[in-house]
Amino acid sequence: MKTILKVIGIIVLLIVGYAIVAILAFGNNYHYEKSMVINAPKEKVWQQINSMKAFNQWNPWMKLDKNMKVTYTGNSGEVGDKYCWDSKNDDAGAGCQEIKELVLNEKQKSEMTFIKPFEGQATSEILLSSEGNSTKVTWTMDTEQETWMKIMRPMMDYQMGKSYEEGLQSLKQISEK
Questions:
Q1: CB 35, CB 139: distance < 8 Å
Q2: Consecutive 10-residue averages of pLDDT for the chain (177 residues)
Q3: Which of 46, 67, 166, 172 is the most buried (most CB within 10 A)?
Q4: What is the residue-wise DSSP string for 32-78?
């Protein structure tokens, strides 16, 4: 019995120790980015990122709920182009994403507002740069994290990596057709 209590005590200390280190070590700002080279010119890739409807053709989170309610507002392919989603699936949640800046064949910047399962805001950029006849696509996300979310940062990096990889692979397939 003493051995079990010691093991439980050590596990609790490790968890508490990790939480304290995570809270102190990680800043409030969270940045994630992933890049991929696509064998297509920037102009062709641009067609897949310059509007919210085009973005949602390869957006990995759209696959989380086939019955997700999606509404589009604003002028497609212009600043102010926006979509809002609402899902009964907590993995998809609800929120809106709006294009805030477009630089032809180079950059799409958007702002996301999350409503559920948690409230928050983030910005995202999709940057295009030429690499010979190919295009390097860099997809970023920046947000401010609450203290308790810092503990989850390694898991968040893992999940973001999976989702961004899936999305960029889909963008690659669409763009290379």
A1: yes
A2: 68 53 58 96 96 96 92 96 93 94 97 91 97 96 71 76 95 96
A3: 46
A4: EEEEEEESS-HHHHHTTTSSHHHHTTT-GGGGG-TT-EEEEES-TTS
